[in-house]
Amino acid sequence: MQAVDEKTPVAKAGKSIAYGESLYNEAMHFLIEEAGLLDDGLFNEWLEKMADDIRCIMPVRQSLNSQSGSGFDDNMIWLDEDKATLSFKVQRLYGGSAWAEDPPSRVRRLITNLRLYETTNPTEYLAKSYLLIQRSRGDAHQFDTFSARREDVLRQTNKGWQLARRTVYVDQAVLGLANLAIFV
Amino acid sequence: MHAKKSDPIENALDILSDGTPITDLVDREKREVATRVFSDPEVYRLELDRIFSKSWIVLGHESEIPNVGDFVTRKMAEDPVILTRQKDGTVTCVLNVCPHRGAIVCREESGNSAVFRCIYHGWIFNHDGSFRGAPFKEEMYPDGLDTVNLTLRKARVEMFCGIIFANWDESAPSLDDYLGDAKFYLNTIFGRTEAGVEVIGAPQRYVINANWKTAAEQFGGDAYHAGQLHRSLGALSGGDPANPRDWQMHAPKVSIDNGHNVLCFDLSYILDKLTGGKKGLSVLEKLNILPPSGLPQEMLPEMLQHLSEQELEFIATTPQSAGGMFPNVGVWCMYNPGPDQSLLPFMSFRSYVPIGPDKFEFCMWVLVAKGASEEYRRTVRRSTSFMQGASGFIESDDAEVWPAQTMAAQGHVAGQTTLKYWALSGDSRPEGWPGGGRVHTGFARDDTQWNWWQAYFDRMEQKV
After folding, report:
1. B386 to chain A: nearest residue by CA?
2. Confidence bin at B247 (pLDDT 50/70/90)
3. How high is the pLDDT of residue B3?
4. Domain map of chain A by residue range?
C-alpha cells in the first residue's frame, strides 16, 4: 500500500462555479448518484465511479480551544483508503461473513450545501459538500448519526465523472458509531 | 446461577440488592460467570470502586506530551483527569474536577498551558493540581482559604515503555509488581530499541453500546473466535476457516498474575510463505527477513543492540501479537497480508473506558518505532486503521458482537444464564520458554480468559 503525503492540500479552490450552472448540476448529480449506489448496496457499481488513483482520508479530530484551530490531527486518521483497500472492503461485503454489515444497515446519505470550484487541472473540480448519514441497524430504534463536511476532487474522464480524492472532515471528536463499516 | 451455599459474608456491600452475593456471580469450579455482570448497574458501581479506583489504568503514551506544559485530558473510568508534563520531566495525573463547585477545569482534549483555570469562578491550579489562586480571594474569604485541601487530587503515575499508567490507590503495589511477568512480553513490542515507540498522533475515540468487559475479556485471549467472527480475514491471508493453523489457534498463550494475558503468534506461518518453507534459519536471518511489525528494516541494528538474545529469539519465533493488560487494555501488533499481498504492519494499544454498564469508549492509539521514517509511519498508520479501530474491517465485526452480548444480558432470564470457560489446556510450558507466567500450548482454549475473570472476581470479592 503506497503511502501518500496527505498534508499537501486536496486541491486549491479556483473560480467558484455557481449553483445552477451546468457544471454545478453535473457535480451534484454525480454526488447524488454516488450516494444512491451506496445506500442501495450496489457497491461494485459504486467502485466503478472511483478513480484508479482514488484516496479517501478522514483525519482524527480533537476538541481544542479556538486559538488552537479546528483540531484535525496532522498525523492520525480514521481511515486512509485507496482503490485496493476499497475493493477489498467491497468484496468483503459480498463475501458472506461481513457480520458488521450483515444484516445490512439501512443507510440514508444526505448530500447538501455543494460548493464547486475550478482547480488548476482543467478536468478536475473541487467539490465541498455536507454529508449527513442516518444509519439504522437491526431492530434498534435509535439511529446512528454521522455528519461531516467533505472535500472531493471530481474528475471528468472518458468513463464519465469519477471521484479522485476525498477528505472527510468529521464533526465529532468522539464518534457516536460502533464502527465505520459503511463508506462515508 | 443456581443458588448455592456461599461462604459467610461480612460486608453488606458484598450482596446485591436482590440478595445475590457477589461470590454467586462466579462458579470457580465449573468456570462459569453470571451473564448479568454485563448489565447489572450495581455490579458496575462496585467495579468503579473495586477495580477502577485501585488498579493501574492506562491513559496514554508519554510521546503525546513531550514538552513542559503539554497536557491531555483523559478518563479513568468515569473520572476526568489531566495528564501534564512537568518541568522536572515527570508526568502528573490530577482529577479534572474543580474543588469549588465541581466543574470540569480543563475543557480541551490536548494542548499546552502554564496553568489550568476553571471557567466558572476563575480558580487557578498548577500542573501538579495545587491551588494557585482565585479572583477576589480576600474579599470572598476574608478569614483565609485552606488551599492545601483545595488541590486537584493526584493519582500515582508510573510508566512502562512510555505507556502512562495511573492509580488512585496509594497502597496498591508498584506498576512493576502489578505488571510482573507481563513486562517481558510487552517490552518485546514497546521497548525494542533505546528510544522505544511513539504515538502516530491523537487516539481514535468512539463509543460502543456494550459493557466494557465484553471487549476486555475477549482481548484477554479469545483465539477461538478468529476464524469465525473474522472469517473475512481469510480472503487476504488465504486462511481456511476449517484449518485451525491458519488462525493461529495453536500458537502459545500466556496467563499472568493480576489478569494480564499474552497471545503469541507462530511466526513460521509467515516466514514459511516468505521463504518457501526454508528450514534452519538463524534468529538473525529470520529478523532480517521479517523485522517485527512497527520497526522498519533499517532500525533492526538498534533492536539487535538493545534486546537480549532471549528476547530476540522470542520475537523471531513466537512473538506476542495480542493480549491484554488488566483491567481494560488490549495490545495488538503483527502483520497481515494486504489487498496487494504485501505484508501490512500494525501496532496499537486500546483501552475500553466504561461509561455506565452498557457503554464504553474505545480509545485506540497507533504507535511506531521512534525514529522511523515518515513513510514508514504512514504505512503503519494506514495498515492499522485498515484492520483495526472504527474503520478496521476486523474490529468492526467485534463491535457487532459486544453490543449483542450486552443487550442480551438486559433480560431477566438471560441475566441468569452463564458465560462458559470450560475449555482449559493447563500449564504446558515448553522447554526453554523465555518468559514468565503460565504458558498454554496446543489448541488455544479458555485459559487466558479464565485468568482474566479470576483476577476480576478476586478484586470484586476484595480478595486482593
Report:
1. A79
2. confident
3. 40
4. 16-170
Q: Which CATH class is domain A16-170?
A: alpha beta
B210, B385, B401 member nearest A78 (Cβ)? B385
Q: Which domains does chain B have, with CATH numbers?
A: 57-171 (2.102.10.10), 181-460 (3.90.380.10)
- Contact state of A78 with B109 under an 8 Å Cβ cutoff: no
Asked if A92 and B209 come within 8 Å (Cβ–Cβ), the reply is no
Q: Going edge to edge, which strands form the sheet with B32-34?
A: B26-27, B32-34, B418-420
Among B106-110, B180-184, B247-251, B316-320, name the one with the lowest average pLDDT: B247-251
Locate the chain B residue with the closest alpha carbon to A74: B201
Mean pLDDT of chain B: 94
Q: B203 and A75 in contact by Cβ < 8 A?
A: no
Chain B positions in Cβ-Cβ contact with residue A64 (cut-off 8 Å): 108-111
Q: CB-CB: which of B204, B395, B396 is closest to A78? A: B204
Contact flag A58-B379 (C-beta cutoff 8 Å) = no
Q: What is the ipTM of this complex?
A: 0.95
- Compute the nearest-CA separation of B285 from chain A (Å): 25
B364, B385, B398, B410: best mutation site toward chain A, by most A Cβ within 10 Å?
A: B385
B108 in contact with A, Cβ within 8 Å? yes
Lowest mean pLDDT among B26-30, B206-210, B216-220, B300-304: B216-220
Q: What is the pTM of this model?
A: 0.95
pLDDT in tens, B137-189: 999 999 999 998 999 999 999 999 999 999 999 999 999 999 999 999 999 99
Write out chain B residues lying below 8 Å of A176, CB-based.
Answer: 206-207
Q: Mark out chain A residues that contact chain B at CB-CB < 8 A.
A: 1, 3-5, 58, 60, 62-65, 68, 71, 73-81, 84-85, 87-89, 91-92, 95, 97-100, 173-181
The whole-angstrom distance between B338's CA and the closest CA on chain A is 8
- How do residues B197-209 score in pLDDT, each as one tens digit? 999 999 999 999 9
Spell out the SS3 assignment of chain B.
Answer: CCCCCCCCCCCHHHECCCCCEHHHHEECCCCEEEHHHHCCHHHHHHHHHHHHCCCCEEEEEHHHCCCCCEEEEEEECCEEEEEEECCCCCEEEEECECCCCCCECCCCCEEECCCEECCCCCCEECCCCCEEECCCHHHHCCCCCCHHHHCCCEEEEEEECCEEEEECCCCCCCHHHHHCCHHHHHHHHHCCCCCCEEECCCCEEEEECCCHHHHHHHHCCCCCCHHHHCHHHHHHHCCCCCCHHHHCCCCCEEEEHHHEEEEECCCHHHHHHHHCCCCCCCHHHHHHHCCCCCCCHHHHHHHHHHCCHHHHHHHHHCCEEEEEECCCEEEEEEEEECCCCCEEEEEEEEEEEECCCCCEEEEEEEEEECCCCHHHHHHHHHHHHHHCCCCCCCHHHHHHHHHHHHHHCCCCCHHHCEEECCCCCCCCCCCCCCCCCEEECCCCCCHHHHHHHHHHHHHHCCCC
